Amino acid sequence: MQYDLEGRTRKFSKDVLGLLAVIKVTELNRNVINQLARSVTSTGANYCEANAACSRKDFKNKIFICRKEVQETKYWLEMLAAVNPEQKDKLRGLWKEAQELTLIFSKITSSLRKKDDHNKNNETEN
Predict the structure, then answer these.
(1) Which domains does the chain carry?
(2) Residue 17: its pLDDT value, please?
(3) Mean predicted confidence (pLDDT) in 10-25
């Protein structure tokens, strides 16, 4: 079964943006909403860029950015829940998806590091 991570990150961004569209903007949550919108859309955008990377180094860089951005997204989801407790259940579900994406991107980055380490070891042996 082929897994569509690009589609999943796109859906996740749309789900978060959909929730943000119905949350009343206040002075207290304005910055959190803006930061969350930026980090969640950056995750998907960077994954799309990774898929179109012209080199392994470029791919690796974009994947590392994806991991950082989705971790930031988890932070902003927590902050939004703190100032919008009526949305806590919806935000919890989105946080869980962000956590799953974090684990996926962490596995990808870990695999890339291991492969790089393996390649370095092979180069020094030859």
Answers:
(1) 5-120 (1.20.1440.60)
(2) 98
(3) 97
